[in-house]
Design brief:
Two copies of one chain form a homodimer. In chain A, 47% of the residues lie in helices and 11% in strands. By secondary structure, chain A is α/β, with parallel strands linked by helices. In chain A, the strands form two sheets. In chain A, strands 1-4-5-6-7-8-9 form a seven-stranded parallel β-sheet. In chain A, strands 2-3 form a two-stranded antiparallel ribbon. In chain A, β2 (90-91) and β3 (99-100) form a beta hairpin. The longest helix of chain A has 25 residues, at 176-200. Chain A binds chain B through residues 164-166, 169-170, 173-174, 213-219, 247-251, 267-270, 273-274, 289-292, 294-296, 299, 306, 326, 328, and chain B through 164-166, 169-170, 173-174, 213-219, 247-251, 267-270, 273-274, 289-292, 294-296, 299, 306, 326, 328.
Chain lengths: 347, 347
């Protein structure tokens, strides 16, 4: 274990399913567009530019910890950063979301991908991790993250966000050898990338398989699970891994089988049912509907209580949304949610 | 029961969970854009125009039955047609999907909705049903359909397709009385509309809750289930009701509780697991991934076999995709799928 500080913090203790004084809470995209501070920075800098300025990335990472009183920070970065050194023409275009100008659709495209060493190429991320740890000064643990092999492969293949993932699925239907090669390559890169974040100071890591919900259980098992499992198995021992996905209520047993200390549950399944499905020998994270933060604070509190009730005082629950904070979310509602989690779960 | 013909057809028998000679199969959007005949008609007529020309609607409905040899026809129409007489400015704009120019966001908007009698206003649909029945000449049963209360309400409130359904959810968070009023009004209209289709000759009906997958189980139970249940309970006795939704693996018990003779399962859950969840005392429909039709025919056949294996010869399985046929799907792959279902399931 590279770093022993904060090991008894409720967030890290909950990852290990130890009893804690209150349920730890953080939010995906807690440093996002719904925050005025962030919008002000984005008015001055492009998204990629911000990611590559470690001082600013650290500042963005720390702000919500101070503002919201959440129990973990997550490094300001993006799951697609790892694709840039592959030379596929990644561009964060305005409005439509990131685009990959040279998507991977066949064996030739795969051969054309540039090889690179995550130790060297993505040093701005590690620098940001170091600076964030210094700025946090052990107030809360810092989470590193990466996209999971399937979600990154789909982005590489589709070239943009997708509704049906037709190109990605076509690749494994028609050229499974290319698919397996690509996923293996990605999983090795992701493992190294996460371990570098850990070496720089990340105290837990989250693997985002945001798009796994489009898969049949059989396809997940055959084309995805081995690679996610290999990433998780390769993470520096002692560092908790959170396995996140969305829309995967019918896939939870397979997702559990891929490993991880904490399994993310979205709001499309009741937390108690989801936890029973993945097994009580693993921690869970979730699962408030991000849209619920548009409800009045009283209703937010009622919904927080419902999630906590379903967790039922069992050790190993980290409170979170089922997906990222939405851009128009009122900041005071987020604060009310965090307060409600702390108050209602105090033991 | 208004119509006794074809009662022993495998499709209707399977709806009643009776043993059949082979597993019946049809596809959502089997008359859609992937078919050249349909694209040719759409080059001449607008979408709404086609819906309102019963001769053409009947022709479009019958074509895939002849071309694909499927075991049911579904009337050519659209779930939003029922919203047009409400005076909300429904427009089928090119490219972006239908738009509602005056969305319902509050009590005032709700009061402004025009009242109408589905017996009178939507007669072009019933006319198309009659003409289709005549053209089908009892070769296969004809399915009528409508949008479910939640999906129609969401469209009315959002005004267009949506990613997060923030306006819809905000309405039930902040003005539940308006929500309940709207849903009740819609469910009464939908019930009448479906019964008119049945009176005109529809031999089964499908209720499309295409967007229910964005809901928490609790919200489904409280804000949706009572209305879906009321529609299903009000359908002309003896006519099978198929309850369709997608992305609802974590909601299946609630969906079952709303009623219906056949529960639609999408590809995000294995068919055997989904069937066990909804209970073996109800029929199921599904559940091939629509994208699988882009795979080579040999792979399609393997995937069809897997779905049939999971149904395991249990009476009450109707083969279908988990959602509609995608626009670029090769027609010969669809034909190969239908043939595979018939051959591999022959008893």
């Amino acid at each position: 274990m590279p770093n022993r500080s904060l090991q008894n913090h409720p967030f890290l203790a909950a990852c290990r399913r130890e009893a804690v004084r209150y349920t730890p809470v953080w939010l995906m995209r807690q440093a996002g567009r719904y925050m005025e501070d962030y919008r002000a920075l984005r008015a001055q800098y492009g998204f990629l530019e911000l990611c590559k300025k470690p001082d600013l990335a650290a500042e963005i990472t720390v702000t919500p910890v101070e503002r919201l009183k959440v129990d973990a920070a997550i490094i300001f970065a993006d799951i697609l950063l790892i694709l840039e050194p592959m030379g596929v023409g990644l561009e964060y275009s305005k409005g439509d979301g990131p685009v990959i100008h040279r998507p991977v659709r066949n064996g030739k495209d795969l051969d054309d991908l540039k090889d690179f060493d995550p130790n060297k190429e993505l040093s701005f991320v590690y620098e940001a991790v170091k600076k964030t740890r210094a700025a946090l000064d052990d107030r809360v643990p810092l989470i590193g993250f990466a996209g999971a092999p399937f979600t990154l492969a789909s982005y590489l293949i589709e070239g943009a966000g997708s509704r049906n993932y037709t190109h990605a699925k076509k690749l494994y239907y028609t050229a499974p050898e290319v698919w397996h090669c690509l996923l293996q390559r990605l999983s090795q890169l992701i493992t190294k990338y996460l371990n570098c974040q850990i070496a720089a100071g990340a105290q837990a890591v989250q693997l985002f398989d945001s798009w796994a919900g489009c898969l049949t259980p059989g396809d997940y098992e055959h084309f995805v699970l081995p690679y996610t499992r290999s990433v998780i198995a390769g993470i520096t021992p002692g560092v908790p891994v959170i396995s996140f996905s969305t829309g995967t209520a019918g896939l939870l047993k397979h997702i559990r089988a891929a490993g991880g200390d904490v399994i993310g549950l979205d709001w499309r399944i009741n937390l108690d049912e989801g936890w029973a499905t993945v097994g009580h020998d693993v921690a869970v994270q979730g699962n408030l509907d991000p849209v619920a933060l548009f409800a009045p604070p009283k209703e937010i509190r009622r919904r927080v209580a419902d999630v906590l009730d379903r967790a039922g005082n069992r050790p190993g629950h980290i409170f979170n949304l089922g997906h990222g904070v939405l851009p128009e979310t009122p900041v005071d509602h987020v604060i009310a949610m965090v307060e409600a989690v702390h108050e209602l779960s105090a033991r």
